[in-house]
Amino acid sequence: MFLLVWRGWGILVLPVALMGTLFGEWLWGLLGMQRGALVDDVLWCVMSFGCAVLSCCWLHRTLERHDKGTLVIDEATGSQLLMKRGDSFFGISVRWWTRIVAALSILMLISIVYRHIKP
Q: What is the DSSP string of 27-92?
């Protein structure tokens, strides 16, 4: 059974990354470039997945900026604790998903280059 696990606004990681990739694809088509050669495929990968990484970074920064947290004061000791929402997707904080998407993009880039240079 496949189970999606998220907390807070972490579910937005997947659609935002997908929309970033689609935006990169749209830009690629808008420029009228063709795929097939190594340089063109590398540029396509950088453009498409670069937009996905930037959109994940935007999501992380937006969620962090709008989550001010709740200040909790312990009456016995007088200590203060700031509790934040803690958005996560599959148990991984949204802040780390930018790095994960970037790593997957680099793996895709290596795969494209390997496919072109393989005899």
A: HHHHTT----SHHHHHHHHHHHHHHHHHHHHHHHHHHHHH---EEEE-TTT--EEEE----EETTE
Q: For residues 74 and 116, give the distance between their C-alpha atoms in angstroms, rounded to a whole number.
A: 62
Maximum separation of any 2 CA atoms in the chain, in Å: 72
State the pTM of this model: 0.80
Quick one: tokens of 28? 């690629």
Least Cα distance to 92 among 29, 13, 25, 38 occurs for: 13
Q: Are the CB atoms for 101 and 53 separated by under 8 Å? A: yes
Tell me the per-residue pLDDT of 9-22, one tens digit each, with 9 for 90 and over.
999 999 999 999 99
- Can you tell me the distance from the alpha carbon of 99 to that of 115, in angstroms, rounded to the nearest whole number? 24
